[in-house]
Amino acid sequence: MKASSLTIGRPVLKHFACQSCARLLRIHRRYATTASETPEIFDVVCVGGGPAGLSLLTALRASRATSSLKIALIESQDLFQTRTWKLPPDQYSNRVSSLTPSSIAFLEDIGAWRHIQSSRVQPYHEMQVWDGVSGSRISFDWPGTGSEPPQFPQQKTIAYMTENLNLTSALLARLEELGGLTIHDNTRVENINLGQETETLNLSSWPVVELADGRRLAARLLVGADGANSPVRAFAGIESRGWDYERHGLVATVQLEGEGWGGADEKVAYQRFLPTGPVALLPLPGNFSTLVWSTLPSHASLLKSLSTADFIAMVNAAFRLSPVDLAYMHTQSQGQAEELSWREQHTKFDVQRIPQRIVGAQEGTVASFPLRMRHADTYIGERIALVGDAAHTVHPLAGQGLNQGQGDIQSLAKTIEYAITHGQDIGAQLSLEPYASDRYATNNLLMGVVDKLHKLYGVQSGPVVALRSWGLQAVDAMGGLKGFLMRQAAGGG
Amino acid sequence: MPPLVRRLILRSPSPLHRLSKPALFTSHRSHSTQLLSPQQQPPSSSSVSAAEVSHFNALASTWWDPHGPSRLLHLMNPLRHDFIASCLSQDASPPSTPDKHLRYLDVGCGGGIFAESAARLPATSSVTAIDPSPSVYCVALEHAKTDPSIRKTLTYHNTSIEDFPAPTTAADKYDILTLFEVIEHVKHPAPFLESCFPFVKPGGWIVLSTIARTWTSWLTTKVVAEDLVGVVPRGTHEWSQYINEEELREWFAKQREWGDARAVGVVYMPGIGWREVNGGERWGNYFFGVRKKEGL
């Protein structure tokens, strides 16, 4: 899988329509002298080898209708490292995503899921969500048959916690199995320009991607799977709008005192809404969990500066103490461990309904990144499609970012397949329209809800707190609405 | 049938019947294809009218604009392939091999919307596409240059079917001759259709799409599409030239060489797109396919 590879000679330019022998000879001669300047022609060039880009290419290679497409992948990281990624069973990466059953079903369809290191994947079956200010609580599980999602009648799993590297490594293994793909990794996109027009070939609507090593790839369809600062999106002149939350997402791999209150088979995800943002603890195999704490940038830097013992105390405090106590502990530069043991004695909480006590944090996994909300004005242009974070960046509180990307991929792969079987040019904007109209409204709705939730729980007092507490209790009491919310979380809504 | 529809249909005699009366096919049907070979075709009865050619010349520059006047045709194009696939699947011995074996002749290809798409399909061995309008022909040539994958498969000719030499050997004939949104623009559809016959292989198909001549099509294509909404440029359609599905069916039933006629109606729904609608062939846009008999 390493580095650039495989197949393909330079496109041979043949005569077309109004031809004469003389012109034909001239054309061949001209191309012979300028061969090095001619870009190599691909049907799909995907910039970005993260979960979204790799899923798209796997889907295209796995489907018979699209398997004859000539495809190239450009990735700045070393994909060999990703392909051979391995960690001991007592260590977990801090970039973990919650994959919904519908994302998993898609990954199974394209043959990637069987390459996953399944011992490192943790399904969970219940969510405990509560308001840090009022204490109102909602618990999500699948009680009996009533609220099971209809498309997964037998399953009781809400989502599967999966390390992103486990997923990308599995996708690369599947791509290796499928073959027939040109990979340029460990290299970056130097620039993107439109192609040239010659007497017989007009690439003036084709993006030509130039790599750092001077290689040039002309793309019938250029896919931007290149993240929030997408160079492909910039090339296409598509604006991405939104705002920064003035929050950082702090992540860490932590160790709990046990496997959870329900044991290994009944894992629970916890999320508590604090005025500074939600803090979530999502189960990994064994005693491990992954922490996602959205908080003020200053709090994030404090947390990162603490000793392991004090950091652990802060995380335990975040699930136990009142927002006032917690705010005080953020003013201390150290000594949070003692502070917690003292304050805990004076705080009432139901031990069974909060996560087990955290006893360790894996070295080197405490990290933070700024939280943003961004949505591209459109997902398509002439010979352009944006997927995943290049199209939308969402607050992580609903754990939907990667699943949204998988939804994009499923839709784009289907759109390309339809175009191929109906003779359409897969790069033409008209061919891509179904993808954009299918995904834009869906993503916009979800992003709106997640954004509103963030703002709703940012309020510390007054009628909003009373209303939202009433809201959580009401939702908890109404099985039907809860079922709907859970189906959304499970990706089936 | 509502009285208004009946009255409208009665008042507008079929272009097929009206125009074919003085012509050649009624009494000498079995020889008509010979009689109408391009060389013998009198200029006055050519399928192509000067007004139609100049109208489409004017449209040429926007032919491939996805938001231009041809947008509805672009959107309809995938359904043409679905219809052709449904015709081919009727075949008693369908060529199950996915390798390149189908030869297309696209008559009145315009800017090449269908011709290009047919050339991209894996089962296609060649597409020959003809159009009498010089500007439209240039648009088609220019646009084909933007896709290196079709250069070997697709050939354009700036000509009408009457002036295009018919193949002399069976192997050079075509599996599928297409007339998409063409016959409603043709003055004399019966001799025009007959001039297409010698191009089709025995067992091959003529597949066309057009609009029924009903009050609904008058309302949607002339009043709404051209005048009110403007999605179709004014003057694109001459409603009296529209041909109804049953007129085509009856006419082809009289042609000794042709059979297996089939049709499906399609309707454009704003916000949804084109959809096949059962029975739609009686009141709006429809696809029509008819097959040349083998062993005659």
Kindly report how far apart the N and C termini of chain B lie: 39 Å
Q: For the record, what CATH class of the largest domain in chain A applies?
A: Alpha Beta
Q: How many helical elements of chain B?
A: 10
Could you estimate the helical fraction of the residues of chain A in percent? 25-40%
Radius of gyration from the alpha-carbon trace of chain A, in angstroms = 25 Å
- Into which percent range does the helicity of residues of chain B fall? 25-40%
Pairing-aware structural class of the strands and helices of chain A? alpha+beta
Most extensive chain contact?
A: A-B, 28 and 27 residues
Low-confidence stretches of chain B: 1-13, 17-45
The residue ranges of chain A in which pLDDT falls below 50 over 5 or more consecutive positions are 1-36, 143-154
- The H-level CATH homologous superfamily of the largest domain in chain A, spelled out, is FAD/NAD(P)-binding domain
| CATH C-level name of chain B | Alpha Beta
Q: Spatial order of the strands in the main sheet of chain B?
A: 3-2-1-4-5-8-6-7
Number of strands of chain A: 20
Overall pLDDT level of chain B: 77
From the spread of the alpha carbons, the general shape of chain A counts as elongated
Instruction: Determine the structural class of chain B based on helices, strands and strand pairing.
Output: alpha/beta
- Beta content of chain A comes to 15-25%
List the helices and strands and how they pair.
The complex is a heterodimer of chains A (493) and B (296).
Chain A: H1 21-33, E1 40-47, H2 51-62, E2 71-74, H3 79-83, E3 96-99, H4 101-109, E4 122-124, E5 126-131, E6 137-141, E7 159-163, H5 164-178, E8 182-184, E9 189-194, E10 207-211, E11 216-224, H6 231-236, E12 240-256, E13 268-274, E14 277-283, E15 288-295, H7 297-305, H8 308-318, H9 323-329, H10 336-344, E16 358-361, E17 367-376, E18 380-381, E19 384-386, E20 392-393, H11 401-421, H12 429-456, H13 463-477, H14 479-489
Parallel strand pairs in A: 1-2, 1-11, 2-8, 5-13, 11-19
Antiparallel strand pairs in A: 3-7, 4-7, 5-6, 9-10, 10-11, 12-15, 12-16, 12-17, 13-14, 14-15, 17-20, 18-19
Helix pairs in contact in A: 2-5, 2-11, 8-10, 11-12
Chain B: H1 3-11, H2 15-20, H3 32-35, H4 50-59, H5 71-88, E1 102-107, H6 113-120, E2 124-130, H7 134-144, E3 154-157, E4 174-180, H8 189-196, E5 200-211, H9 215-228, H10 245-253, E6 258-269, E7 273-277, E8 285-292
Helix pairs in contact in B: 5-6
InterPro entries (chain A): FAD-bd, FAD/NAD-bd_sf, Ubi_Hdrlase_CS, UbiH/COQ6, UbiH/COQ6_monooxygenase, UbQ_mOase_COQ6
Subcellular location (chain A): Mitochondrion inner membrane
Subunit structure (chain A): Component of a multi-subunit COQ enzyme complex, composed of at least COQ3, COQ4, COQ5, COQ6, COQ7 and COQ9.
